[in-house]
Amino acid sequence: MYIVAYEANPRRCLVCVGYGAVMESAESPVLPHYGNGCIDGVVPALLRGEANDWLPEPVKGSRCVVMLVLDGLGSAIIDENRSLLPELAAMDGGSITTVVPSTTATALTSLTTGLSPAEHGIVGYRQRAEGEVLNTLLWRTDSGRRPPEPFMVQRHTPFLGREVPVVTRSEFLTTGFTDVHLRGAPFMGWSTIAVLVEQCRALAAERRQLIYSYYPGVDTVAHEFGLHGPYFLAEISFADELVGRLLDVLSPDVTLLVTADHGQVHVGEGWLGLEPLGDLVASCSGEGRFRWVTAPRGGAAALSEAARERFGGDAWVMERDELLEGGWLGPKPASSNVRRRLGDVVLAAKGTAAFVDPQLPGEANLVGAHGSFTAAEMYVPLLAARGRASK
What we know:
The protein is α/β, with parallel strands linked by helices. It has 14 helices and 20 strands.
């Protein structure tokens, strides 16, 4: 993998080659660096006080770390808009990988549990569960039947079982997905940004080791308006201001650590239908840029061949075993239960393509999307600075 290292107050990006690999081209798939230079390793490293060369320098010796997750703010977005992001540009650190698929439900669960998707089993935005397709963020089945209990889908405790306060949107308190990835954590709901900032300040003053905070705005605006134009630029500028406001209220012995769950791709009109696959497709799951397709019984091989022939230029096409054995969902073997949550063949989009689920055509209204293996989606920031409030 490569680390994109940012100097203090730079006007350029330093690309450092590390961990025995070279920088990928724009159309090369990015394999997650699970456990070391990936978001699944951040919380364990912070809580265990592990020494490593990929945590930013301001984390070392810090009394408290406030981790701010800026949903959807990939490293490429920062690098392409540095003049609009003075606070982020001035922070120390670089980039790490997210997980596969590069999507919120999977990535946040890996971030909080410290586990790969193959281990925790939240393997996508929409995944197969008990003969249904379960929307993991809404915790709702496509059929409208009662969804499974969150604990039956993801049983691992977040934050290594330690008491880490969570500062996130108030309306998330009672959701199934909150139970999945934040189960048991002290919940501090915010309704405005001022409340988010004050909650982080107050918790840091209580001498907590780690505080988890979450802001979804960048991802929301990217989905609705894409990555081009004034709305997105205004939103990432606002996210940068949020970083500055947090630094202004945190004391110098507290570190603000900024990361993200995934990056973004501007899809626009790049949505593609699955009609060329015809009746080889029985059902779909996943999402537009990481589309699982399931064949009728006995038809997986024919589906795989047809998908490669028709969509091989628009996607990395992999069968389920190929994806798992390649380590894309993690280095440990997936259980049979987790395997059943996947389809037969995945279309991991290249370029600006995305694939429409015939059962969910409204998804094609999204302008920005994520989920695949591209560098824009896979590399996320891990940036840090000490607080600057006067004592």
